[in-house]
Amino acid sequence: MSSPSGSSNESSTYTVLVTGANSGLGFSTCCRLIDEFLFSRPQNHILHLIPTTRSASKSADTLDRLRQHLTKTLRRSNGTTLGISVLLERRIRLEAEQVELTSLVSVKRLARRLRKRGEQEGLRIDALVCNAGIGGWEGFDMLKATWGLLTDLIDTVTYPRYKTGGKGWVTKPQMAGAEGEAEGKEEGVDRDRDRDTDSTLGEVFTANVFGHYLLAHDLVPLMSSTTPDQHPGRIVWVSSIEAYPHSLDLDDLQGLHTTESYESSKRLTDVLVLSSELPSTQQWVSPYLSLPGSSKSQDQDGQELRRPKMYLSHPGVCGTSIAALPKLLEYCMFAVFYVARLLGSPWHCVSSYLGAVSVVWLALTPAAQLEELEHEEGKAKWGSACDVRGDERVIRTEVSGWGWGGRVGEVPDGGLRSAKGRWRGMRTVSKESREEFEETGRKVWRAMEELRVKWESRLEGVE
């Protein structure tokens, strides 16, 4: 934590940047960050919240709704006497930024603006929440969904196999610049346009993974620390419970040749984060988490840099705008989710506000506590869960090939390692599957770094 001004009050301001914040999980994450910060941090601490959206109009709307949420929070809080304007000025600082994550030019421009503020104002990013994304679905099989609901409801609505994913979706040509990228999407342009693989990228892959990957690297200067009393920033990735191992093909990292591009991108996210601290991946992780354009571990004054750390979360199962549905089907979806929760599913948070609990926990929990948890029990995928009454909690989530903490032989224990809601394709981590996961991590990090270096070179000077 630090002060944007670099004053003596260095630990009083905590800055969080949240991508995709105009709706769904992203907006709920912002609301929950405000609520938990207000009631868990000292009165002299300030939350500097930077939600990003794809356009100025969406940013204005998001800020307005966040202020409305803050007003409601104050009304619900007994004993809070500060007026909304005073509180906003003293404890909550809201400002919006725009970025289109499928445009690498747009990503670079945002990073450049923020780094410039770091140089001029002392801006520091304490937590980057990589939330924005798209589903890549074109519809679903109604007959398969109905049969699943009638015969195996909980598994069907936890690990759905009835969605129809798009195939071959690509971004606009990257070198065309950032102007109008959001408008092009909203006008429903052809997803298969400009199939020139030298100038385009997989759309779901770029929105869900690579855009964030590039942004996080460019923000390393604002997230690193050089003093012992200052913890480095954290990069909180939002994955999914649907990150199936079979969805990721290392020969099709961008998911262009599969109908499971969303699931592929989330498995890729899992592998990237969970393998980010293994000795075998440091050959690629080190330059990625070093200053842009350099592999050095020191700043310009020769101070040793403490690199930002990566954490992994998922929101359980909740209703968001990532999958657009007709109103009637949306109501049916929520009803079925509640039924699944009543039948004992731990993952059906249903509301995006409950689903945001793991993301916010990773963003606000003291760094020393997080480091101790992952040092003692292994690096984890932290999931949002709840009981039948809707009381939420954060728990470790089993990952195929990794388990709950990267340890061979881990089995459900009824506590933190629960078998409830377990994916049926899950197997106990063996020596062989653990080695395979690590090898996949090495290959993924190598491929992502090669792709980043390639595009950094191509984009040099264009932004």
Q: Structural class, please?
A: alpha/beta
The CATH top-level class label:
Alpha Beta
- Quickly give the CATH architecture: 3-Layer(aba) Sandwich
Q: How would you describe the shape?
A: globular
Can you summarize the main beta sheet?
9 strands, mixed
Approximate strand percentage:
5-15%
Radius of gyration: 21 Å
Question: Would you tell me which CATH topology applies?
Answer: Rossmann fold
> How many structural domains does the protein architecture include?
1
Task: Determine the fraction of residues in helical runs and give it as a percent range.
Answer: 40-55%
- What name goes with the CATH superfamily? NAD(P)-binding Rossmann-like Domain
Tally of individual helices: 16
| Total number of strands | 11
Give the SSE order as H and E letters. Answer: EHEHHEEHEEHHEHHHEHHEHHHHEEH
Mean pLDDT: 87
Which regions contain 5 or more consecutive residues with pLDDT less than 50? Answer: 1-10, 178-190
Intertermini distance: 30 Å
